[in-house]
Amino acid sequence: MHNVADRSLRNDFANRKVGFAYMLRITFAKLQLLKYASRNIECSATYQLPITTYPKKMDKPNDQWKKELTPEQYRVLREKGTEAPFTGQLYLNKEKGLYLCAACGNELFTSDMKFDSGCGWPSFDKEIEGGKIIQKRDVSFGMIRTEIMCANCGSHLGHIFDDGPTETGVRYCVNSISMKFKADQ
Ligand SMILES: [Zn+2]
């Protein structure tokens, strides 16, 4: 009887010793993790993303988009498709007015920013103001390009290139079907 009690006491002591060592190990691991995490934060703070990213504001389910858009609009805007060049209604549009996102009405460009690039899609040399358009790296089809999307609804607009002929040096190459035109009154 005495022996059993003695043994259990010894076991208890051993367990507690193990428990203490375990706790020490956990604390040490937590400290390491903290050190690693803070180093990561430091890294991400100094790392400059070359491309602007904004969280998209509108989150509409695909079923809803399918109801609101034509099949071709849905393919381009929501599935990142591309319309055939030289076919879009706004490609040769020279009227004064505003170009809006066809999906949500977000104002993207004015007619003063449009120029004839000869590439087959409406082209602009700047956007209406910062924050209306998101840029994202696109490596599809074996090319490295920068995709442009509406910052409000996340819809695909086209791509941006740094070969623009005006002083901005950039070319926003936009699918005509991704935009709605609002003529000046
Ligand atoms: Zn939009």
Question: Could you describe the 3D structure shown?
Answer:
There is one protein chain. With 185 residues, this protein is of the alpha+beta class. It has two domains: 1-47; 62-183, Metal Binding Protein, Guanine Nucleotide Exchange Factor, Chain A. The protein is 32% helix and 22% strand. It is built from three helices and nine strands; from the N terminus they run H-H-H-E-E-E-E-E-E-E-E-E. The protein has helices at residues 2-46, 62-68, 71-78; strands at 97-101, 107-110, 114-115, 123-124, 133-138, 145-150, 156-161, 171-174, 179-183. It has a six-stranded antiparallel beta sheet with strand order 3-4-8-7-6-5. The chain has a three-stranded antiparallel beta sheet with strand order 2-1-9, with no helix packed on it. A hairpin with a 6-residue loop joins strand 5 (133-138) and strand 6 (145-150). The longest helix is centred in the N-terminal third of the chain and has 45 residues, at 2-46. It is globular, with a radius of gyration of 29 Å. The N and C termini lie far apart (102 Å). 22% of the residues are buried. The model is unreliable at 33-50 (pLDDT under 50). Bound molecules: zinc ion. Zinc ion binds next to loops. Zinc ion (ZN) is lined by residues 101, 103-104, 106, 150, 152-153, 155.
